[in-house]
Prior knowledge:
The protein has three helices and six strands. The longest helix has 24 residues.
Amino acid sequence: MRYSVLSPQSGFIRKATVCLHTFIPICADSATGGMVIIMQQIKCPNCGEVFNNLIEESKPKQEGICDKCHGNLTSRDDDSEETFEKRYQIYQKETEPLIKYYEGKNMAYHVDSSKDSDYAFKGIEQIIGGLYDKH
Length: 135
């Protein structure tokens, strides 16, 4: 595969060949856990900042008010149990087989997204750091 890569040292875009040898699915522990997390997400329509009333680290400091711009937080109209069920059926049909494929090749490294984005990011960093050390 070829990807465009921006080189900060040279300041221009160049082509680099990247070989896919790792797959990192980022998932909640369960369907129910994922549904609860998604249904508790709230977003600032002004700046786009996302919060979650369920996860302590992701809660806004003041209920219903954005920490960043002080706008009023809203939830998505389609973050309902019915919509989640449809999304989860698509996940089971299209994504689970892909995860199983990469697991079968020992190329899948899982990251738990049920905590907060910093937790998930640190998990990804650990995986990538460990893989970099191997190569």
